[in-house]
Amino acid sequence: MNKGSYLFLLLGLFLAGGVYSFWQQKQSRSLIVLMAIGSAMSLVAGLLQI
Question: Model pTM?
C-alpha cells in the first residue's frame, strides 16, 4: 500500500465522517450529497491504487 492510496482512503473516511456529522446536524442536503460524492470518489481512488 503506497502513500497515495493511504491518503485517499483517509480523506474518504474523513469526508464520510463529515457526512454523518452534517446529517446529524440537519445541514442542507446539497452539501451532504456533495461531501458524500467526494467521499465515495476518494475511497474508490484509494482502493483502486492498492
Answer: 0.89
